[in-house]
Every structure is written in C-alpha cells, then in structure tokens.
C-alpha cells in the first residue's frame, strides 16, 4: 500500500512529504487522478482522458528535461517543440490542456508573441498557459510577472531541476487550473441546450443589461445577439418598461418572480409572454445576474394574466371567459362615447391602445382574448387592491397563520374571515435635546427621554416609570423636538392638554391597543422623520400632523377588531356601515375631542386653508393604518419608489427624487411611514419584539374568549389561549405582511437596523417553535430569563 504522510510540525516549520516507497511518482500519479468529484460547476462532468501537455524550450536544458520527466511520471501525453512556429502548429492541431513556455531568455523563444498567438486560436479558453521564469523574477519589483500575465499566461513557475518539485507544480496546475477549466468547458453543453430551447431565455446583470439571449429570442423577436448585448433589457425587449418594476422588487431581494410581460417584436409588433425570472449570485449573497425565461405558449398566458406572483401579491383575479360579439359591440360603442369627451384620462389612452392592438390582431384569436382580459382587469376601480390569495387559505401549513392574515386583510365582517385589528411597533434615530416645557420631568425619565429617538428605545421602561402615561411625556419631548407649537402657532400648555386628553381616551385595560402603543408609534414616526430622506421632502406642517396622527391613530380602541364590532352589532359598526369601522372612529373622535374644547384645540390659531390641509393629513394617515388596504398602499409605494435605475449615478439620483415633487407621492410616503410605524414591533430588538407579541396575543385571546362566551362568530379561532402557537403566528405575520413592506421601506429610507432586527427575531421565533416554546406561559417564562434579558432590569436604590 502506497502512503504519503504530511508532517506540519517539524522543527523547521516546513511541511515534508515522505513516501514509504522509492518511487514517489506512482503515488503522486494516483493522487493526481484519485479525486473525481471535486467542486463542480454543475452536474455535467468533463471526460476522463489523458491530459495533453506542450512544452516549448528553444534548448531542452536540465529544467526542460525535469519538467518532461515529471510529466511522464504523472501520465501526461507530452509534445515537445523548440520553436514558435512548430509550437503554434502543434497547438492548433491538438489544442493541448497545458502549454509550458520557456521565458527565461529573450534570445530564445519569442514567448510573448507565441502566447498571444495561442490566445487567438479558437478553443484556447480551455488551455492553461504557463511561463517558466528565473527565481529572480519573483524577487524583483520590475513588473515581470505582471507583463507575462497581461500577455495571456495563466501563471508562472520558477525554474527547478528537482523532479519532485516539478511534479508537485504539475499537480497544482492540474487541480487549481486545468480541472476548473475543463469543468467550465462543460457549460458549452448548456448553451447548446439553450439554443435548441423553444422558450426565450435571457440573462442580464444586476442592472438589467443584457448579457445573453438564446436563438429562440433572436428568432422570435427579430434581434441579433451582437446588437443587444450590454444594452438595457427595458429598451431592447420590454414593450412597457414599467413592467420591470414589480419584477425587480422581487429579484433584487433574491426572490423568484412569475408574471406576464409584453415583449417587443420587430417590426413594431408585441408578444405577450409568461415570464419566470430567477436571481442568482456569482459571488457573495446579493444577486449578480438574473435569468428570465419567457413562455410564448398562449394556453399559459391566460393564467398568467389572472395572477402574477412577486414581492407584491396578485392584484386581482378575473374571469377568462371569451367575450361575445354583442358585448364587443357595446364595448366599442362605449369607447366611442369616451373618445368624444373633451377630457382624456390615462385609462382612456390605455383602452384606446388596447383597441388598436385588437384591430391589428384579428387573425390571432388568442391575442384578442388576452386583450379582452386585460380590459376586464382595467375596469376594476381597485387596480392596486389585493385580496387574500386562495393559496394562502388552502395551502397554509399553519392554521394560526391563515387565521391571523385573513382576519387582518379581509374587508367583509364575515365569521373567521374578517377583522381589522392591527399590530404595532416602535422606531427611532438620533435625538436633539428638547427645550423643556410645562411638564415637570423626573430625572430618571428625562435621562430615558434623552435617547427617545433611538431604535432601541425602551418604551416599556417609560410606561413603568410614568405609571402607564408614556404618551404625555414622550409626546411633549417629540413635539418640542420638532417645534410643533411654533408650527401650529399654539402654546405648549395647549399641546400638553391635548396629549393628556388623547391619552385619557385610550383604554388602559387593553393589553396592546393602549397609550403605550400610541406612544410607541409616535416615537417610531419621529425616528423616521429624522432621516435625511424624509427631511428632504417633508415640510414642518407635515411633520406636526404626522406626529399628531401617530399619537391619536388608535384613540378609544376597544381592544377588539372591526369584525368583532360588526358581528356584535356594536354602535360604531352600525354608525360606519361596517366599513373601516375602527379607523373612521379614531379619526372622527380625534377631531371631536380637539375641536370640542378650546383648552385642547391645537388647531385654533391656524387659518382656514392651513387647517383644512392639517385635518386632511391627519385623517388620511389614520385611515392608512387600516390593514384591509395594506397591499394597495404597498403596491403603489413600490411602483413609484422601489425601482432600480440602470442609468448613471447622476441620472439615477435625479430620477430617484423626481417622483417626490408630486404631492400625491408625498402622500404615499406619509401613508407608508405611519403603516410601518404601526406594525414595526417585529423589527425591534428581541426583548421588545417578544413583549409586543405577548401583548397582542393576549388581546386576541380575550376577543376569542368573549366571542365564545357570547355565542358570536369566532373571527380568529386559532387564537385560542390553550392551543395557539405564538411563534407560528409571528413567523406568519413576518412572512406575509412585514417582510416585503420593510424591505421596500428600508430601500427608500435607508434604515438597515430595521431588517437586521427583523431577521434576527425571525430566526429566534423559529428556534422557539422548534424547541416547543409556543404558549403564552412559555413566552412569559422565557422573558424572565437572561436568554432575552429582563424587560425591566432592576436599578439599585440610593440606599444600596
């Protein structure tokens, strides 16, 4: 049995290779070929054959002979040449795996020219070219090695007459250079397969610049590869560049995307294709390339129109019935009336373009059917509204997740499907010292408030120190920080009175929807407002009304969901016709309280126009917290702000801020801001996140208990205190609601700590679920351990 031992602990500190037989090269040869499953580039393996080596020495000296003997021992098939011309001829005939050229003497082989000639030969990319150099070449700082590599050499090897050293050098070349190139060569088989594929296959870089198109793409779209490579995907293939936006929002986060894309076809034609886009990373974890596969099968296109999957869930499902001739006549008549109007809305233009496309596609019934389907979808008045997907209800592995998400998003107050009880969160940044005010703040509270704009701010500590009146103290600090009194032209006493009344109208007995939650959302909103991106677009009046909306957004919350109120015939549900019950009540009560007493009317000194703007802002932001419109707000925000430009940095910066000049888009930002503040608890430090989860779960449990005791429909049956898994509910909430929203919000506002905490907490919930810590009692026990840190660490008293 042959054996090689490697000793790394010798006194000299050098590794020694020892063999128990005289012929070390038999062992080295076995070592060379024994590993057949090294790191692969894929499943295809290169052929097993003798490697071909070409040595080029003008004079075969001792160094050349040593290399030749070592190669023979290792089983290489060797060709030896002594001139440039014969070496090039041999190589062009046999395409050797390894070429070794003597570069030690400028009077010998013209190694530079020879190497460049080899590199101009077809198939050279699979050959390793090595230059033999003198030892001094590695010791001098004269760029000798660099110039050789620039000429096309893969590496350099130092001259040696030691046959063992030469053998080891060849083994290294085999493993580190020749084998990877052979593996890489197998990818040509994949390119051949792609060129025979009927589907269109496109590869782009992370900026959507085309890097590969297959022959089907050239044939179907009338393109030539050399004309489009390196150019933007949007310009070359996309009929509507905006279609890239929803796809990009998924791909840039490492997620696959399915959807329908309209492709351009020469000359002046379009094709509707089903697209599957997949990101992959050549290096690191972030996507470096995108693979897009377009299926032109008309059968699948109808299904793709009905549903498009990505970071934003399917906007709407619709019928795929083919329209009758009669209905087609009515559509054309309606279109004629529409075109006769003196005003032209964007939807009018869209319908007109669809009609033109239909006229040009009379010979293709499948295209006409698809265009009819598009028009049906566009007729919806809720283009961005998203219903709970069928697969969420049917395929969810965890009933508690399905219950929670369905209850949060459903619009109708039906048993087990409705509800609009919301979740909460906390936020922060960097704090500027407030100037003080009427409220006498104890030192310990003041010290805590000094850090009130930190994302790690402990709102529960403030709740404890203020005896459950955190909104007064935190609210005054934030109002002073943002100079709200000056903006509203009112005194600080009025602001303080307003906070006092608003806080008094929160229900202290609620475990979650109380004034601590309001203070938490207000603090989060203030943290967002401190970011440079927000400062560049939000005016002072917007800052003031945003903080006011955050403080009052859940005032008089009963601790039950809108579905519960509707099912129990609550007066609020009757008053608001079962539509946006809680949010409408919060907004209305805010102004009823504010305007009902001069002592707390913070708007009394505003002129009428300014007041109307302030009121509209507050109402709009409070209504934006309704979860049934979550995907509508998110889809609009992503469509406007979360796109990736492939232009220059300057152009990208200009286009980045251009949408913010539109008032409607500023409104989108404010809605997204308060939405994120309202449900940001999964993005807080772990101990805060867990406490918020415990509180919302307890509130849901109370609702389920009351529904059962009163014989009402149970909105969320899985939120039963005896069977509910808290970790599973949190995992599902992050998967379906939080993740996409905060990915988009972070891309806009640049707060990486949001995602860092969210991901860490997600992993921790997974661990708790696997460990069986699922009940409320389990979570409470864990909160008291060092595992999560005590929620309220004990501070030493003065006597200690």
TrEMBL record:
Zn(2+) 1 binds at residues 517, 553-554, 678. Residues 186-231 form the PAS domain. Its EC number is 3.1.4.53. Coiled coil: none annotated. CDD domains: HDc, PAS. Pathway: Purine metabolism; 3',5'-cyclic AMP degradation; AMP from 3',5'-cyclic AMP: step 1/1. Residues 437-772 form the PDEase domain. Keywords: cAMP, Hydrolase, Metal-binding. Its cofactor is a divalent metal cation. Zn(2+) 2 binds at residue 554. Signal peptide: none annotated. The keyword Metal-binding applies. It is an enzyme of class 3 (hydrolase). AMP binds at residues 513-517, 554, 678, 730. One of its GO terms (biological process) is regulation of DNA-templated transcription. PROSITE patterns: PAS, PDEASE_I_2. One of its GO terms (molecular function) is metal ion binding. Belongs to the cyclic nucleotide phosphodiesterase family. PDE8 subfamily. PANTHER family: CYCLIC NUCLEOTIDE PHOSPHODIESTERASE. This is 3',5'-cyclic-AMP phosphodiesterase.
């Amino acid at each position: 049995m042959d054996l090689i031992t490697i000793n790394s602990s010798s006194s000299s500190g050098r590794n020694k290779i020892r063999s128990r037989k005289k012929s070390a090269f038999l062992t080295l040869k076995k070592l060379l070929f024994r590993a057949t499953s090294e790191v692969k580039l894929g499943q295809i393996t290169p052929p097993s054959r003798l490697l071909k080596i070409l040595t080029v020495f003008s004079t075969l000296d001792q160094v050349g002979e040593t290399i030749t003997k070592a190669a023979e021992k290792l089983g290489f098939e060797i060709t030896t040449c002594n001139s440039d011309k014969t070496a090039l001829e041999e190589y062009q005939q046999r395409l050797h795996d390894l070429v070794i050229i003597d570069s030690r003497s400028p009077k010998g082989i013209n190694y530079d020219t020879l190497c460049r000639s080899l590199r101009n030969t077809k198939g050279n990319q699979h050959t390793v070219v090595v230059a033999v150099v003198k030892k001094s070449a590695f010791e001098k700082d004269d760029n000798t090695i660099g110039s050789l590599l620039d000429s096309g050499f893969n590496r350099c090897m130092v001259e040696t007459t030691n046959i063992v050293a030469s053998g080891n050098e060849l083994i290294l070349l085999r493993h580190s250079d020749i084998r990877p190139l052979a593996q890489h060569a197998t990818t040509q088989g994949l390119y051949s397969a792609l060129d025979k594929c009927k589907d269109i296959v496109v590869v782009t870089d992370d900026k959507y610049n085309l890097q590969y198109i297959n022959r089907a793409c050239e044939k179907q779209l009338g393109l030539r590869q050399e004309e489009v490579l390196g150019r933007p995907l949007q310009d070359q293939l996309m009929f509507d560049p905006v279609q890239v936006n929803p796809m990009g929002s998924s791909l840039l986060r490492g997620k696959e995307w399915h959807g329908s894309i309209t492709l351009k076809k020469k000359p002046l034609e379009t094709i509707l294709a089903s697209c599957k886009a997949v990101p992959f990373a050549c290096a690191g974890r972030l996507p470096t390339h995108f693979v897009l596969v377009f299926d032109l099968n008309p059968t699948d296109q109808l299904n793709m129109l009905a549903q498009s999957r990505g970071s934003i869930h399917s906007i709407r499902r619709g019928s795929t019935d083919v329209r009758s001739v009669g209905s087609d006549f009515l559509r054309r008549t309606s279109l004629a009336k529409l075109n006769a109007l003196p005003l032209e809305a964007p939807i009018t233009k869209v319908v007109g373009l669809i009609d033109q496309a239909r006229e040009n596609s009379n010979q293709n019934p499948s295209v006409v059917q698809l265009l009819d389907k598009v028009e049906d979808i566009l007729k919806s008045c809720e283009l961005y509204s998203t219903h709970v997907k069928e697969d969420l209800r049917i395929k969810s592995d965890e009933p508690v997740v399905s219950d929670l998400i369905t209850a949060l998003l459903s619009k109708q107050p039906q048993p087990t499907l409705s509800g609009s009880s919301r979740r909460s969160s906390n936020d922060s940044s960097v704090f500027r010292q407030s100037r003080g005010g009427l409220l006498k703040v104890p030192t310990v509270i003041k010290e805590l408030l000094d850090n009130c704009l930190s994302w790690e701010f402990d709102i529960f500590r403030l709740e404890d120190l203020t005896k459950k009146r955190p909104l007064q103290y935190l609210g005054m600090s934030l109002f002073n920080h943002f100079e709200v009194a000056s903006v509203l032209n009112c005194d600080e006493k009025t602001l303080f009175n307003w906070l006092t009344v608003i806080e008094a109208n929160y229900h202290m007995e609620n475990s979650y929807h109380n004034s601590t939650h309001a203070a938490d959302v207000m603090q989060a909103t203030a943290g967002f407002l401190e970011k440079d991106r927000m400062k560049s677009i939000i005016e002072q009046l917007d800052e003031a009304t945003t903080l006011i909306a955050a403080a009052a957004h859940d005032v008089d919350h009963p601790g039950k969901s809108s579905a519960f109120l509707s099912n129990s015939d609550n007066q609020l549900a009757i008053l608001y016709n079962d539509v946006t019950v809680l949010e409408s009540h919060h907004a209305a009560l805010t102004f009823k309280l504010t305007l009902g007493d001069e002592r707390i009317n913070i708007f009394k000194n505003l002129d009428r126009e300014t007041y109307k703007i302030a009121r509209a802002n507050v109402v709009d932001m409070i209504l934006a917290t309704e979860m049934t419109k979550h995907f509508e707000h998110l889809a609009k925000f992503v469509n406007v702000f979360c796109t990736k430009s492939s232009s220059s940095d300057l152009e990208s910066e200009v286009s980045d801020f251009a949408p913010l000049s539109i008032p409607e888009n500023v409104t989108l930002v404010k809605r997204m801001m308060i939405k994120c503040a309202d449900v940001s608890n999964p993005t807080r430090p772990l101990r805060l996140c867990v406490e918020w989860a415990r509180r919302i779960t307890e509130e849901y449990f109370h609702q389920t208990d009351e529904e059962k005791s009163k014989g009402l429909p149970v909105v969320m049956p899985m939120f039963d205190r005896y069977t509910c898994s808290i970790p599973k509910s949190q995992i599902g909430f992050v998967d379906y609601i939080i993740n996409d929203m905060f990915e988009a919000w972070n891309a806009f506002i640049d707060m990486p700590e949001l995602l860092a905490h969210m991901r860490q907490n997600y992993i921790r919930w997974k661990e708790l679920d696997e460990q069986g810590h699922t009940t409320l009692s389990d979570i409470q026990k864990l909160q008291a351990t060092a595992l999560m840190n005590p929620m309220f660490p004990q501070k030493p008293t003065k006597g200690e």
